[in-house]
Amino acid sequence: MKSSMEHFDARDEMADFPEELNVKAILEKVKVFLVVKQLKEDSSPNLVIPNLYIGCLGTVLNKNKLYETQITHILSVCEMPIFPYQAEDFKSLLININDSVDQEIKSKFEMANEFIHSAIKNKQNILIHCFAGKSRSASFVIAYLIKYLQMTPLQALKLLQSKRRIAQPNMGFMKQLDAYHKELYRQPQIQKEQKQEDSSSVMKKVKLNQQDEHSGQFNVQQILNS
To answer: Fewer Cβ atoms within 10 Å of its own Cβ: the N or the C terminal residue of the chain?
Structure first.
């Protein structure tokens, strides 16, 4: 005996849908809606160190927030055809790169660091952003911390994640950051100069020690801080 319930075939039902109803197009629109919603919710920059902020595309598009935070410089490290603002609004540098493990970025660090430092040394605020504020922008923040705060990549990442939890360069970027750190601090000439600086620092501490012993005022904390 045949069942009175008709057999349901999803493919048959889909065939009856109007041609203008494109499911893929609908899904793409939903995806765009969710992305826009996320960007709006994540539109405030995160302060990493004095004058240095990190954010996403939603941050850079929130012009009122940029003015409120007194941002004067913007480093964009993502795929953007043009910078969204006029030159008189902000000083900007655009580096078009993909968020891919195969993307080469190390050669861009020095150029980016010079731009970042041009703002920070004058106590001006700079925003570094990519699309999500997670991988590309994080990589360039870390590169700056490596060079100017003498941090290791992991130390810089830990500091950054304490300010922006989602920050995480992809594996390819982390390898390039490690190579950048080695280039800066492990070359023979750098090591030689570092040893000379360390030797000079030790001599200063010894002299200070001797002076304090003669005066009867030996101060351990002063030596540690010198």
So the answer is: N
CB burial of 32-43 (b: ≥16 within 10 Å; e: otherwise) equals eeeeeeebeebb
Q: In this predicted model, what pLDDT tens digit does every residue of 135-185 receive, in sequence order?
A: 999 999 999 999 999 999 999 999 999 999 999 999 999 999 999 999 999
Query: Is residue 130 flagged as an active site residue?
Result: yes
Q: What is the pLDDT of residues 59-116, one digit of tens each?
A: 998 999 999 999 999 999 998 777 777 767 899 999 999 999 999 999 999 999 999 9
Supply the DSSP string of 100-169, one letter for each residue. -TT---GGGHHHHHHHHHHHHTTT-EEEEE-SSSSSHHHHHHHHHHHHHS---HHHHHHHHHHHSTT---
Active-site choice (56, 66, 130, 141): 130
Whole-prediction pTM: 0.68
